[in-house]
From TrEMBL:
Lineage start: Bacteria, Pseudomonadati, Pseudomonadota, Alphaproteobacteria, Hyphomicrobiales
Protein name per Swiss-Prot or TrEMBL: ABC transporter ATP-binding protein
Protein source organism: Aminobacter carboxidus
GO molecular function: ATP binding
Primary localization: membrane
Family that this chain belongs to: Belongs to the ABC transporter superfamily.
Membrane topology: Peripheral membrane protein
Localisation per UniProt entry: Cell inner membrane
Length: 343
């Protein structure tokens, strides 16, 4: 692991919701620990419903965890309250998935960004206008966008505005919840290139929540793989993608289609057994065991510990060391991102 001090650290976080079934709880996030270091993009991947978004929303305070700690520069946010908590939480901002729902259609873009500036104490109109134009330029949009309404912008432009609004309070961490999934493929690359630029120029740490494994591989330096509320594998992108150690990670990577139709026509995709178990009643022991082709009786006895198979590379599987020794699985082709942003 790098010796660089973490800007954000989540320790044993638990976020659960009351189920519609009387007396039961949805275990959305169950004992998750992750960290982000300054200026890095970290991927969080997994199937829909695995708890990725709940984890992100818990970090920024949109959901209330039942236990665990969220530390910003070693300051435990759960121990803060009132004004101090609001001031500290400004350092962690959220970029929502749907750019068509995250902006108020009754506000101009300039008004939406100005609201964030007022929060940090910028009340002078001249300073506000100047800062709005600086932020729009930072995300590759012209000054004229400030006078327009969200309905006049494309999806990609709206998402850039959402990013600009998040940057207005000068955060140190961005939680990006599927920020490009609602965009066309060509626009996705432009927005992803923007995240890479912000990482380089501003040193903002980014937790990038996504189900597009190929896109995460291109952008993230480290990756966490989540399944049914648990982190099942973690490590550098190079390690996780080239030497996946958890059966679930291997299945995810093997399911990625190839861009070459000839390869795709002959490719064999290993099928996972059954459906995702109910989060109100997860299996005993390893939560993936009911779908895992390698599961044995021991997998049902106790929750598997994280087995470290390399520097910073761990998997919650009793067979991690044996899987590590097997052949490298075929890799998804990385998406090529343009070198320059377009407005």
């Amino acid at each position: 692991m790098s010796s660089t001090k973490s800007v954000l650290r989540v320790e044993n976080l638990v976020t659960r919701f009351k189920s519609v079934e009387r007396g039961k709880w949805v275990k959305a996030v169950d004992g998750v620990s992750i960290e982000l270091r300054p200026g890095e993009i970290v991927g969080l991947v997994g199937e829909s419903g695995c708890g990725k978004s709940t984890l992100g929303r818990s970090i920024v305070g949109l959901e209330r965890p039942q236990s665990g700690r969220i530390l910003l520069d070693d300051i435990d946010l759960s121990g803060l309250g009132g004004r101090k908590l609001r001031e500290t939480r400004r350092a962690i901002q959220y970029v929502f998935q749907d750019p068509y729902a995250s902006l108020n259609d009754r506000q101009t873009i300039g008004e939406a960004i100005t609201e964030a500036l007022v929060i940090i104490g910028i009340h002078d109109r001249t300073r506000q206008r100047r800062r709005v134009h600086e932020l729009l330029d930072q995300v590759g949009l012209p000054d004229t966008v400030a006078e327009r309404y969200p309905r006049e912008l494309s999806g990609g432009q709206r998402q850039r505005v959402a990013i600009a609004r998040s940057l207005a309070v000068e955060p140190r961490v961005l939680i990006c919840d599927e920020p490009v999934s609602a965009l066309d493929l060509s626009i996705r690359s432009q927005v992803m290139n923007l995240f890479l630029t912000l990482q380089k120029d501003l040193g903002v740490a980014c937790l990038f929540i996504a189900h597009d494994l190929a896109l995460v591989r291109q952008a993230a330096s480290r990756v966490y793989v989540m399944y049914l509320g648990k982190i099942v594998e973690q490590g550098t992108s190079l390690d996780v993608y080239e030497r996946p150690t958890h059966p679930y990670t291997r299945a995810l990577l093997a399911s990625i289609p190839s861009a070459d139709p000839r390869i795709e026509a002959t490719r064999e995709v290993p099928a996972l057994l059954g459906d995702i178990p109910s989060p109100t009643n997860p299996p005993s022991g390893c939560r993936f065991r009911t779908r895992c082709p390698s599961a044995v009786e021991a997998c049902a006895v106790a929750e598997p510990p994280t087995v470290w198979v390399g520097p910073g590379h761990g998997a919650a599987c009793i067979f991690a060391a044996q899987i590590r020794a097997t052949e490298v699985v075929p890799q998804p082709e990385p998406q090529r991102l343009p070198q320059q942003l377009s407005a």
